[in-house]
Amino acid sequence: MGIKIYGRDGSLRGTVAPDDNSTQQHGVQADNVLSLTFTHYGFLGFETGDYADFFGSRYWLMDVPAPEQVSDGEWKYSLRLYGIESLIKRFLVLETTDGDTEPVFTLTAPAREHVAMVVGCIRGCLIINVKFPVAYLLAKLL
User: Fold this and answer.
1) Global pTM?
2) Which DSSP helix (H) or strand (E) runs through 3?
3) Which 8-state DSSP code applies to residue 55?
4) pLDDT tens across 66-114, in order?
Protein backbone atom coordinates (compact mmCIF):
# COMPACT_ATOMS: atom_id res chain seq x y z
CA MET A 1 0.00 0.00 0.00
CA GLY A 2 1.50 3.33 -1.04
CA ILE A 3 1.08 6.46 1.05
CA LYS A 4 1.28 9.77 -0.78
CA ILE A 5 3.16 12.54 1.00
CA TYR A 6 2.46 16.11 -0.07
CA GLY A 7 4.32 19.35 0.46
CA ARG A 8 2.62 22.09 2.43
CA ASP A 9 1.69 23.70 -0.90
CA GLY A 10 -0.20 20.55 -1.94
CA SER A 11 2.35 19.27 -4.46
CA LEU A 12 3.16 15.56 -4.34
CA ARG A 13 6.56 14.92 -2.73
CA GLY A 14 6.41 11.18 -3.31
CA THR A 15 4.55 7.93 -2.86
CA VAL A 16 6.15 5.66 -0.29
CA ALA A 17 5.68 1.99 0.61
CA PRO A 18 6.00 1.72 4.41
CA ASP A 19 7.71 -1.35 5.81
CA ASP A 20 6.37 -3.64 8.54
CA ASN A 21 7.72 -1.42 11.34
CA SER A 22 5.36 1.43 10.42
CA THR A 23 2.56 2.12 12.89
CA GLN A 24 -0.35 4.38 13.65
CA GLN A 25 -0.95 5.17 17.33
CA HIS A 26 -4.16 6.88 18.34
CA GLY A 27 -5.48 6.60 21.87
CA VAL A 28 -7.78 8.37 24.28
CA GLN A 29 -5.98 11.44 25.65
CA ALA A 30 -2.85 10.39 23.77
CA ASP A 31 -0.93 11.54 20.73
CA ASN A 32 -2.16 10.69 17.26
CA VAL A 33 1.04 9.66 15.48
CA LEU A 34 1.74 7.99 12.16
CA SER A 35 5.25 6.50 12.17
CA LEU A 36 6.55 5.52 8.76
CA THR A 37 9.80 3.74 7.96
CA PHE A 38 10.64 3.05 4.34
CA THR A 39 13.39 2.87 1.77
CA HIS A 40 13.16 5.04 -1.33
CA TYR A 41 15.28 4.98 -4.47
CA GLY A 42 15.90 8.68 -4.54
CA PHE A 43 16.24 11.57 -2.11
CA LEU A 44 12.93 13.10 -0.98
CA GLY A 45 13.41 16.59 0.42
CA PHE A 46 10.79 16.60 3.19
CA GLU A 47 10.09 19.84 5.05
CA THR A 48 8.18 20.81 8.16
CA GLY A 49 4.49 21.08 7.26
CA ASP A 50 4.45 18.27 4.68
CA TYR A 51 1.47 15.98 5.16
CA ALA A 52 -0.07 12.62 4.37
CA ASP A 53 -3.67 11.43 4.48
CA PHE A 54 -4.14 8.02 6.10
CA PHE A 55 -7.55 6.36 6.57
CA GLY A 56 -9.45 9.63 6.58
CA SER A 57 -7.09 11.57 8.87
CA ARG A 58 -4.40 14.05 7.95
CA TYR A 59 -0.96 13.84 9.54
CA TRP A 60 1.71 16.57 9.43
CA LEU A 61 5.47 16.38 9.60
CA MET A 62 6.68 18.55 12.47
CA ASP A 63 10.42 17.88 12.18
CA VAL A 64 12.68 17.64 9.16
CA PRO A 65 13.85 14.02 8.93
CA ALA A 66 17.49 13.02 8.52
CA PRO A 67 17.46 10.12 6.05
CA GLU A 68 20.24 7.57 6.01
CA GLN A 69 21.91 6.93 2.68
CA VAL A 70 22.14 3.16 2.31
CA SER A 71 23.83 3.17 -1.10
CA ASP A 72 24.03 5.31 -4.23
CA GLY A 73 20.47 6.38 -4.89
CA GLU A 74 18.94 4.45 -1.96
CA TRP A 75 17.73 6.26 1.15
CA LYS A 76 16.19 4.94 4.37
CA TYR A 77 13.63 7.21 6.05
CA SER A 78 11.98 7.24 9.44
CA LEU A 79 9.14 9.80 9.66
CA ARG A 80 6.80 10.75 12.48
CA LEU A 81 3.70 12.58 11.31
CA TYR A 82 1.21 14.01 13.81
CA GLY A 83 -2.58 14.34 13.67
CA ILE A 84 -4.42 17.53 14.59
CA GLU A 85 -4.99 16.26 18.14
CA SER A 86 -1.24 16.13 18.66
CA LEU A 87 -0.53 19.46 16.97
CA ILE A 88 -2.70 21.70 19.11
CA LYS A 89 -0.87 20.93 22.35
CA ARG A 90 2.06 22.91 20.95
CA PHE A 91 0.06 26.14 20.80
CA LEU A 92 -0.21 28.76 23.49
CA VAL A 93 -3.64 30.39 23.68
CA LEU A 94 -3.37 34.13 24.14
CA GLU A 95 -6.08 36.60 25.07
CA THR A 96 -5.77 39.37 22.47
CA THR A 97 -9.07 41.22 22.84
CA ASP A 98 -7.55 44.50 24.09
CA GLY A 99 -4.37 44.24 22.06
CA ASP A 100 -2.52 42.46 24.85
CA THR A 101 -0.96 39.03 24.51
CA GLU A 102 -1.63 37.55 27.91
CA PRO A 103 -1.35 33.76 28.33
CA VAL A 104 -3.22 33.82 31.68
CA PHE A 105 -6.73 35.21 31.70
CA THR A 106 -10.30 34.62 32.88
CA LEU A 107 -13.08 33.94 30.41
CA THR A 108 -16.69 34.75 31.16
CA ALA A 109 -17.99 34.38 27.61
CA PRO A 110 -20.09 31.47 26.31
CA ALA A 111 -18.35 28.24 25.27
CA ARG A 112 -18.65 29.07 21.57
CA GLU A 113 -16.55 32.23 22.07
CA HIS A 114 -13.96 30.23 24.03
CA VAL A 115 -13.64 27.74 21.19
CA ALA A 116 -13.49 30.54 18.62
CA MET A 117 -10.60 32.14 20.53
CA VAL A 118 -8.72 28.82 20.75
CA VAL A 119 -9.29 28.15 17.03
CA GLY A 120 -8.11 31.67 16.20
CA CYS A 121 -4.86 31.07 18.11
CA ILE A 122 -4.36 27.73 16.37
CA ARG A 123 -4.93 29.30 12.95
CA GLY A 124 -2.43 32.03 13.77
CA CYS A 125 0.24 29.56 14.86
CA LEU A 126 -0.04 26.83 12.25
CA ILE A 127 2.94 26.46 9.97
CA ILE A 128 0.58 25.38 7.23
CA ASN A 129 -2.18 27.31 5.54
CA VAL A 130 -5.26 25.31 6.51
CA LYS A 131 -8.59 26.74 7.57
CA PHE A 132 -10.22 24.56 10.22
CA PRO A 133 -13.86 25.31 10.88
CA VAL A 134 -14.83 25.30 14.56
CA ALA A 135 -17.17 22.33 13.97
CA TYR A 136 -14.32 20.25 12.49
CA LEU A 137 -12.05 20.87 15.49
CA LEU A 138 -14.82 20.16 17.96
CA ALA A 139 -15.58 16.85 16.22
CA LYS A 140 -11.89 15.88 16.34
CA LEU A 141 -11.25 16.98 19.91
CA LEU A 142 -14.41 15.89 21.72
Assistant:
1) 0.67
2) strand 3-6
3) T
4) 888 888 888 898 888 888 777 666 666 666 666 666 665 566 777 777 7
